[in-house]
């Protein structure tokens, strides 16, 4: 029997009925629309006005039109992605991007804006904006001007702002953040910010005016400011300046208004003082070196703590009244190392190799536990009603001709437990009613103690401690 016939006979096929082959309706689209793929609105020509919220993007490099702004934003909640392209200005055009005050929550990012006759970004009336990863070049009135509560991050600005010192390459309203920006060759100021703003990790170079100008209650951290025409950092009242560096600026390195704190910062080779501090400023753990008009000027009620001040033209530290200088090293100034006015304190400091006096204070001051060595004139100079205790003054003045370890000019001072070695005169005391106890002068040329004994109150001056009273002074 045929094998194929046998297989069919033994295993008959079962055939099931199928459904209708008629389509239920016309074919539906199976691909996404362009709006679904790219849910943003393209900008392909200028000028362009945005009056609906949403996301917009450039499709190519765009050039401005004379007499017109480039992109005009008239509503809130708008994002503009330059998409890596350029907005290019032309003669007679105005701003690259501008917006009215109703355009809150504006975002602009990722592209280049250059050569606009006015501003690159002119959005000073916009609150809560964010501007990031932008490059702004050669915009005549300024690069970025933004409103309160804005964030400007990771932007690079070069050759923006006009030649006037009050124009700014980057300017913010109040309560903003400027972070990780580089600002170079500004015609006016590099960065100017409103009160309550933080400027973090920015580099500012070659500004025509101030490098960085801050209003009240701002924070500056981790910034480098160099080659400004005026001050490196002009800090408003109540600022904090921390971990920053100001060098080679045309005026002061850091100008600190009342109530400001400066910490862990460096001023180097500025044309004027390294730091000028108005009233009530705290300067802590700072370095000020090779500045053209002094290391630090300290206004009333200022504290200078744990600082290093070296090789400045003028005074190392020049202060007014109620100034405190502690744990600070001051060397190689062309004038006095530390010179302070009334009611001030100098404690635990080193002031050496200065071309005038090491420490020079006025009335009612406290000078304790300091070292003043190898200064060209005198070690420590005080006027009246001061307490001078536990200090060392060695090798001051011209050993064979002039200079005192301690020069007491006025009356009613208390001079105790001090050490003067290898000075022309150990203690030169010219005033009256001074108390002089437990001091030592040795290896002097002219005299250990030069004073009018009738008008002062001094313990005996002896050479040998054997049998000496506890308050004795020693000269040998």
Provide a descriptive summary of the structure in words:
The termini are far apart. It contains 2 helices and 57 strands. It is rod-shaped. Residues 1-16 have low confidence and may be disordered. The relative contact order is 0.04. The chain is mostly beta strands. 3% of the residues lie in helices and 41% in strands. The protein has a 32-stranded parallel β-sheet that branches. It has a 19-stranded parallel β-sheet, with no helix packed on it.
Labels describing this entry:
single chain, 476 residues, mainly beta, 2 helices, rod-shaped
Oligomer: single chain
Which percent range fits the helix content?
A: under 10%
How many helical stretches? Answer: 2
State which percent range the strand residues make up.
Answer: 35-45%
Please identify the structural class as seen in this structure. mainly beta
What best-fitting shape do the alpha-carbon axes yield? rod-shaped
Average pLDDT number: 93
Largest sheet: 32 strands, parallel
Distance between the termini: 144 Å
The whole-angstrom Rg is 37 Å
Taking pLDDT < 50 over at least 5 consecutive residues as the criterion, the unreliable ranges are 1-16
| Number of DSSP E strands | 57
